[in-house]
Amino acid sequence: MPETGPLIVQSDRTLMLEVAHPRYEACRDFLAVFAEIVKSPEFVHTYKITPLSLWNAAAMNIPLDDIIKGLYSLSRYEPPDVVISDIKEWYGIYGKLVLEKKSHENLQLTVSDPIILNRLSQDKSVDKFFMAKTETGFLINHNDRGELKQALIKIGYPVKDLCGYVNGDPIYLSLRDADIDNRLFILRDYQKEAIDIFFQSGRASGGSGVIVLPCGSGKTIIGLGIISKVLNYTLIITTNNVSVHQWRDELLSKTTFAIENIGEFTGIKKEIKPITITTYQMLTHRRSKNEEMPYLDIFTNHNWGLIIYDEVHLLPAPVFRATTSIQAKRRLGLTATLIREDRKEDDVFALIGPKRYDIPWKTLEHKGYIAQAACIEYRICLPQAEEIEYAHADKRSRFRIAAENSRKNAIVEELITNHYNDKILIIGQYITQLEKIASLMNIPLITGKMKHLEREKLYNSFKKGGVNVLVVSKVANFAVDLPDANVMIQVSGTFGSRQEEAQRLGRILRPKDKSSYFYTLVSKSTDEQSFGVNRQLFLIEQGYKYQIRYYE
Question: Which one of 83, 348, 491, 502 has the fewest beta carbons within 10 angstroms of its own beta carbon?
Answer without folding.
Answer: 83
